[in-house]
Amino acid sequence: MEKIRWDRRSVQDVLQEFRISLDAGLNTEQVSENQKKYGWNQLKEANKKTFLSKVADQFKDFLILILLVASVVSFSIGEKTDAMIIVAIVIINAMLGLYQEGKAEKAIEALQKLAAPNANVIRNGVPISVPAEQLVPGDVVVLETGDIVPADLRLVESYNLQIEEASLTGESVASEKRAEDICEEDVSLADRKNMAYASTILTYGRGKGVVVSTGHDTEIGKIAEVIQGYEEESTPLQKKLARLGKQLGIIVLAVCVVVFVIGILQNLPMLDMFMTSVSLAVAAIPEGLPAIVTVVLSLGMGKMASKHAIVKKLPAVETLGTTTVICSDKTGTLTQNEMTVVKVFVDEHILDVEGEGYEADGRICHEKEEVDVETVPTLERLLEITLLANDAKLKRLENGKLGVMGDPTEGALITLANKWDMYSKDYEEAHPRKNELPFDSDRKMMTTFHENIGKNPVVSFTKGAPDVVLSRCSYWGKNNEIVELNEELREKISKVNQKFSKNALRVLALAYHSFEKMPEEITVDEIEKEMIFVGLVGMIDPARAEAKEAIKLCKHAGIIPVMITGDYKETAFAIGQQLGMVEDISQAMMGTELEQYNAEQMREIVKDKRVYARVSPEHKVKIVTALKENGNIVAMTGDGVNDALAIKKADIGIAMGITGTDVAKNTAEVILTDDNFASIVDAVQEGRIIYSNIKKFVSFLLSCNIGEILIVLVSILMKLPVPLLPIQLLWLNLVTDSFPALALGVEKGDEDIMNQPPRDPQEPILDKKTSIRITVQSIAITIATIGAYQYGLHHFTEHSLEGARTIAFVTLILAELLRSYSARSESHTVMSIGMFSNRALTLGTVFSLFMTLIVVYIPFMRTLFHTVFLGAEEWSRIIPFALIPFIVGETYKLFHKSTNRTQV
Ligand code: ATP
């Protein structure tokens, strides 16, 4: 696109250039035209591996290379079939590896799409949300506080707009933006006040902009030609396993050398012993563990996403499972965020409002009778404020119900006015907004400016948290007069506020201020002062039923749920009580109280507080820090721009998918697509299941591998011929073992997993219990296989060695397959969890069995694998031997006990 200096053009010029109007935006035809012309609004992804490099990666493993060298050696000295089979097995193994990697990659790509940002645009005259990558030049983008600018925009409307452009200019102080400015020739990028650049952050205010450049044409696109794709950060578990793999690898190699030396001392053929040792090393070194962990973690991410938690980084999947405290917002997370005004306090009367939801059905009553304007003369002014200091819209949804576009708190205020036959459209047309100080959760208020209201040329309307608004009011407008707000009157209002709050109502105060003309300086301190108080509204926001259940579950699981809210203490406590989070008001605390405590005192405070009210973003950081210092693993939700710090500080930062800002979503590790507390608990549960599954397959694979080593080592020590041929070992390990292992990774988890306390993140993957379990299992596998082998050696007269080896080979495979069923739960018997309830395992077992039968029953394969035909009699011996490890595993569970850990 030819580079036009849009900052030097007027707004009108820009609109003309793109043939659009501000209200209509582009039409569908223009969008597709521009999309063809300019492409997608995205940058190339870095480090995308080609298919060939992925294939090459599969062969990079040192052991696989040794194996290939070994097969070349055996080929050159005439052992052609064996050499070729080994190569074939290596290729099958590589294909399986590619398949698994592909699966993990797909899961992650799908998640990335889900987590990709959206942009609010006006197209065909309708405001809609589209994926940011679908923006085209000419699109009219609506910007709100907390948005990350999705493309380069020429601003066309701005209200107190401030944008932080550190990603582009390095300057971390937000700069003010003004749509009406027109820049001079020589201004630098940082001084172009009428432009908003892609990747910068709206820290305050709101506005609209027309997209002028997308993708690589944007300023950030020119600096960063590529975006970093998904970062493949190793998780602590992957690192631990890689280390463990290395340590075990060294031990295995040492044992293989011993096997080789003993074999030579026993005058066994050198080449045979060399092949046996190499195959044994390849089979028994658990080098593939971290790769399987990646697959299991990525699949787990997919599962969490289907339960409304999009996990952006692999390590978070693991951390979730160790969570000991969940700090959650209240509104919308623990409550339904479906507000209905039920009480109004005006002219010293408490009015009741009938009806539920956003429909205007219901009356505003005073002592059961519809209100009379004579007795409540200020009601109309109060409703005027609720309509005009309001950004929400009510809209009929597809299901026929009225819904809110915007903040439900504001939606409820529109409904309230509608019940008195006052409508936004009429008021907004008669008194359009001339300026505003937008709501922010630090200030807890918002103010708008309108002209010609009554006799006043300019009026500001303010609504916000009662304590904040009241502290900035000097008068009270009631019963057709304006009186000074003395202590006694303040006390009166406070009492009503408390009464509402104690009934779990969310309370807002409404006030106004008149001006002779539009003030020049629209700043908080200048404007929101000496206001005239008008009244209070109290709205219900029912607690989520599922949140109550989730809190119960948390308590069973040794996880402490904590509420951190911007709302009033009494309201927060009342909701907390309904949800079963708190019993006594002493467990609730105001955010401002925290300011007086130092770090050490904070560590004490957080031990028994469960509800923090009137909290500002800095308080959140203080709470997270103290909890973490006490050794907790903290999950923390957030939605606003200022929450980014607390989200970052928490072990698991969680952003709200519906109400959260781009900034919060960008910083968080987890995005909740339904903003629901219960989904956090589901994700924690899933995290626990994933970890326990990883542990299951690690201990399964290791016991199989150690078993194989022991079988060869013990037989050699017993001066028996080697029971498993190299190709059998490889076949067994690379082809038949991996399916059950993967299937264990997707086990649905023990039902009582949330009855156990959180796991200590420092806990080694091979703790004492797991190590003992692995030892017992590998010994059981060794005894079963050598027992069957001995039987085979005495049973067959002809082909006695090949027959005995076939029996050992089949027994070992069967023993491992059966044992995988027992490995499905560390504490519950397989019968109690349902033999076939893991479909992946059933399929994996059938496949592995099928592969085994091929090797035994297809004559051609028999020749290749040096096996013999097995009849019913042999099977009748193999099966009891193969059952040994399974029976041992199931019996072992009877001795299982869990360890405890609780914190806070
Ligand atoms: P949570 O932090 O649990 O989501 P919250 O929604 O009450 O709770 P904030 O959004 O930070 O937290 O709001 C803080 C306070 O500001 C509210 O208790 C209310 O009194 C006031 N408030 C909320 N929304 C608005 C609004 N749109 N306009 C004016 N004041 C508001």
UniProtKB/TrEMBL annotation:
Where on the tree of life does the source sit, at the highest rank? Answer: Bacteria
Task: Read off the SMART domains from this record.
Answer: Cation_ATPase_N
In Pfam terms, one family for this protein is: Cation_ATPase_N
- Gene Ontology biological-process entries: intracellular potassium ion homeostasis; intracellular sodium ion homeostasis; potassium ion import across plasma membrane; proton transmembrane transport; sodium ion export across plasma membrane
InterPro entries noted in UniProt = ATPase_P-typ_cation-transptr_C, ATPase_P-typ_cation-transptr_N, ATPase_P-typ_cyto_dom_N, ATPase_P-typ_P_site, ATPase_P-typ_TM_dom_sf, ATPase_P-typ_transduc_dom_A_sf, ATPase_P-type_domA, Cation_transp_ATPase_P-type
Enzyme Commission number(s) of this protein: 7.2.2.10
Reactions catalysed according to its record: Ca(2+)(in) + ATP + H2O = Ca(2+)(out) + ADP + phosphate + H(+)
The protein's UniProt keywords, in alphabetical order, are: ATP-binding, Calcium, Calcium transport, Cell membrane, Ion transport, Membrane, Metal-binding, Nucleotide-binding, Phosphoprotein, Translocase, Transmembrane, Transmembrane helix, Transport
Query: Which membrane topology describes this protein?
Result: Multi-pass membrane protein
A GO MF term: ATP hydrolysis activity
Which family does the UniProt entry place this protein in? Belongs to the cation transport ATPase (P-type) (TC 3.A.3) family. Type IIA subfamily.
Query: What PANTHER family does its record include?
Result: P-TYPE ATPASE (PTHR43294:SF20), SODIUM/POTASSIUM-TRANSPORTING ATPASE SUBUNIT ALPHA (PTHR43294)
What is the protein named? Answer: P-type Ca(2+) transporter
Per the UniProt record, the source organism is Filifactor alocis (strain ATCC 35896 / CCUG 47790 / D40 B5) (Fusobacterium alocis)
* Phylogenetic lineage: Bacteria, Bacillati, Bacillota, Clostridia, Peptostreptococcales
